[in-house]
Design brief:
- The complex is a heterodimer of chains A (97) and B (525).
- Chain A is mainly alpha-helical and 97 residues long.
- Chain A is built from four helices and three strands.
- Chain A has a two-stranded antiparallel sheet.
- Chain B is mainly beta and 525 residues long.
- Chain B has a five-stranded mixed beta sheet, covered by helices on one side. In chain B, strands 12, 13, 14, 15 and 16 form a five-stranded antiparallel beta sheet that branches. In chain B, strands 17, 18, 19, 20 and 21 form a five-stranded antiparallel beta sheet that branches.
- In chain B, helix 1 crosses helix 2.
- About 27% of the residues of chain B have low confidence.
- Classes of the chains: A mainly alpha (97), B mainly beta (525).
- Chains A and B meet through helix 2, helix 3 and strand 3 of A and strand 4 and helix 2 of B.
- Strand 3 of chain A pairs parallel with strand 4 of chain B, so a sheet runs across the interface.
Amino acid sequence: APTRSRPTRSAHHESARGYLETFGYLKKGRPEVGNLLLVDSEQAYEDDFRIAIKTLQEFGGIPVTGEIDEATKALMKQKRCGRPDREEDEEQHGHRR
Amino acid sequence: KRFAVQGEKWKHTNLTWSLSSVRRPSQLDPYGTRSVLSRALDVWAQASRLTFTEVNSDDADIVVSFAKRYHDDAYPFDGRGSILAHAFFPGSGRGGDAHFDDDELWLLQPRDDDEDGTSLFAVAVHEFGHSLGLSHSSVKGALMFPWYQGIQPNFVLPEDDRNGIQQMYGPKTSNKWARIPYYRPQEPPQTTTTTTTTTTTTTTTRKPYIHHHHNRHPERYPNRAYTPYPRTPSRYPSYYPERPYYPDRRHYNTSDDHPRRTNHHHPYSRPTETTTHGTTYRPRYPHVRPEYPTNPRPHYPNDPSQDNPRKPYYPEKTTQRPTTTTPSDKPDTCDTSYDAVALIRGELFIFKNRYHWRIGARGRYSGYPMEITRMWSSLPKNLTHVDAVYERPDRKIAIFIGKELYLFDSQYLLPGYPKPLRTFGLPESLEKLDAAMVWGHNGNTYFYSGTMYWKYDEEKGRVDYDYPRNMAMWKGVGNNIDSVFQWKDGKTYFFKGKGFWKFNDLQMQVENERPSLSASFWMGC
């Protein structure tokens, strides 16, 4: 049977993903084919994305919803430092060094 | 929610910085820019042991540059957008450098109504936090909070950032471990120019130096009767350009219109030469502090005002002096047992009740015994004594008091301490330790209490499982020892009461049955 495909993601979703990757909330590079996820990793990606949004909301001190709501969009537009909030090695240690 | 230390830090504290000679700000004047950057660095300098010196070289520790879009690193800027700047953690080469997006509208003196401009000072203070090794903090209001917040006019370094920088580099040095530099009205160094290539020496004619203790710079301070020389750098150069900064003499009359009023009560500013308790005080113009090895003023035995350095000392007004009573628990140096003995930074520290002695290469330091809390101020105020002290292989200082361990890095209590003894695998029922040491014979750490002792694994942070064992192993010292430590001669010494044993590590027994007297051997009595 043909693999189930999802509609391409919204522009907000894509810019949010870029932001999350730039500032260390989401691992760079997803197993994608064009804009369509491989079926078996789609759920994993959704979970990671949602966790990343929550982590950003918590770090930024805004309500933690896991959704790209207005407060989250405003936070992503705010002027800020270019360094990641979560450094690579924190990924391995699982906590902020 | 707190600061995050990245891990790398500068090994030296006298850091150099410079504004890049190549990538300068295209819309800011370099002098104003350098002044703002200097003030931003001063924020971190005021809270830590770090010092910053501007140099005219791109090899400085911290090189600040302004660049647009892609600029030879993996973090291109985004034009007038949300990314303002970034900086690199301590290290060689690019380490420590700070890059600012030259497309932004940078403001040197931001006003409240500046909506779209960005305060260079606010961003620079943040980026220099990265240059010193701090990561982003999730504490809103902290400098290291990643989103731009501007800076309040009466800016004070937030608590979270202060904790972060002080954990890495320690707070501004207090005079416990090092002396405060003093300024004297000396003759300024006469410059002699040497021409190396032609090996001829030309000496400038020496200008006669006349020390004016009156207004030396009338053009700068027209209504000042007196001015200090040489001037110490002012803490707030651009906010109060006129006011000189006296490091720690708050009681001085700081209004500029009246002649300086000398505070007769302060020991460093007596009007005439007097000799008190064998110490001669010379006239104090300008105010020069006599040099003392460790304590900025002489220690008068049995004088309670020594307990509180903030309280002025009243030598002349004997009627005002409180009746001197010797604190009941102050030990007699030559007739006492010891609670703990430890070699710390190569110096011998002996602890008894609330006090401790410090013995260096040239013998006992003057001014001791001194309260333990004056050296380790984070210990409990109602401290009565310490049970055991040792310097760990990682140079941290472990102080055991009752059922708790206080761990210090020099004199800064590490976060998370004190910790209960059970955290280290010691039994819940254990009331206190008698002693602790790193045994030079095998490099292991041992804890002693009553009739038992434990081997402690510094890596794992807990005692080994096949302990405790009986003190009988250490033949000759018996139980309930007072202290044990390893002296510079590599020998182990056990203390009990007013005596001590030298211990033979190979034969695992004391070298002689009868203990020797501690006072004469260790205290030089």
